[in-house]
Amino acid sequence: MGRIIIFNIIRFLVLLILQVAVLKNIGYYNIAVAFPYILIILLLPIGLPNFLLYTLAFLTGLSIDAFYDSIGIHAAACVALAYFRIFFHKITIELDEQESFNTPSWGNMGFKWYSTYIVLSVVIHHVVLFFVEAFSFYNFIHTLLSIALSGVFTLILIFVISLLTYHKKSRVIN
Amino acid sequence: MKNLWLFLVRYNAFFWFILFFVFSLALVVNNNNYQRSSFVNSSNVVVGSFYSNVNSWKEYMHLAEANKDLLDENALLRHQLQEMVAKDSINEPLITDSMDNPSRYEFVVASVVNNSVHQRSNYITINKGSLDGIEKDMGVITSNGVVGTVLNVSLHFSTIKSLLHPDTKISVSVDSTSSAFGSLVWGDNTESRFAMVRDIPNHVKLYVGQPIYTSGYSTKFPKGIKVGYVVQTDIVSGGSFKDVRILLTTKFEKLTHVYIVKDKLAKEKLELESLNEDNG
């Protein structure tokens, strides 16, 4: 239990620093930008109470916003992502598993589940993020292009990070 | 009552979502409409000092280029100094024009601790704050162009709304002598090297390569700072005005040092102009 909390804090710090110190400066103009920091929210323990999950997601988004000077935009996207996460877990994970504190990682859940989870999450997050950022349907095509290209960029990075930290069945019994 | 409670508990995920999401959107709208100085931005101490640490490493990468820019600027200043020394004051009557007086403006040097060019709204953070006399809405320039205006100020840091931001508008004129003027905006560009000048009267003839200067109408920028060169003239916006596309002289990707423009007469000018509104 304590180990899981420490792991999550380390993951938060590492991904936040990666995002704001490195990835903020990398991008194809403002069309393709990667946001692998959403792994912070996606890899939180499964059995987290809803309110706590929303609070953590909101604070993660707000931390990113502070560095990007874009108050509320990432927070909104992260909250939407948290809602999607709850929904997805509810319909795909068995009841007894839903109570556990396991990390929903590649090693624990298998590739098929994990890849579906990541792809759908990235889509949801980026759609909300870019539409809230544009705040209109003006330049619709440009926004869609940003979502598609940034999504691919983010997915590649997330899968690289997941591969590098892959552990087979590293479940911790609480 | 009990049913209502059960309903809320059963769909709690959805209601929390609505609550948090609306709160986030409120933050976005507040921040966009009124530019309120909020605590959570890169001018606060934690974020600011983090970026100045990161930047102290990154600065090494651009040292050679920064040096070259400083040398160029030194050469230019030396040249101007020479002109001043060589000038014979007897030939010209000494009339001090308080509007064009060079001492009207004061420049504060600051180094850039955080910069972005890839966002839709770009901001810059610098390492000077209210302790150094920086105030909101001051203009920011670099040795070879304009950068933006000060948005938020904390004790040791300030954030700048870069020219690469949809809300930034700077009054510019075509040629330093001409009276034709327009407003400089980033426009729909995605590139940090180009910008647009909008609403130039149609009768003004423009050619490719023509320099664009600040007009000095606002209190933010002194008159005659070079902004960029015209690269495309045939953009029609309709009506009696036209738009041109310009290549900026400021290199936003490689910004290391900027100057904040302090206008000593700003307060006087703004107070005088505010009387106009009172009179209707």
From TrEMBL, chain A:
The chain crosses the membrane at residues 6-23, 35-59, 71-88, 117-138, 144-166. The keyword Transmembrane applies. It comes from the Bacteria. Keywords: Membrane, Transmembrane, Transmembrane helix. This is Rod shape-determining protein MreD. It comes from Sphingobacterium litopenaei.
From TrEMBL, chain B:
The keyword Nucleus does not apply. Pfam families: MreC (PF04085). Residues 112-262 form the Rod shape-determining protein MreC beta-barrel core domain. The chain crosses the membrane at residues 7-29. The keyword Transmembrane applies. Keywords: Cell shape, Membrane, Transmembrane, Transmembrane helix. Belongs to the MreC family. Involved in formation and maintenance of cell shape. This is Cell shape-determining protein MreC. It comes from Sphingobacterium litopenaei.
